[in-house]
Fold DUF350 domain-containing protein.
Amino acid sequence: MQQILNGITNSAIYSILGIVILLIAYLIVEKITPENSWKEIVENKNIALAIVFAGFIIGMAMIISAALHG
């Protein structure tokens, strides 16, 4: 039972850590891009930019998960 609780705790900690790192990476990219990407995607319906950011998020998530997994 103790191993199961340790596994659940570790999974929760690594999940939260991964999400925080992903959000920080997104905020950094948001700051270095010339325009507000969220506004451009939502208000101006820029599909190309949405696809680029989706690729960025998937790529960063894969890198973070590999780094956290070891």
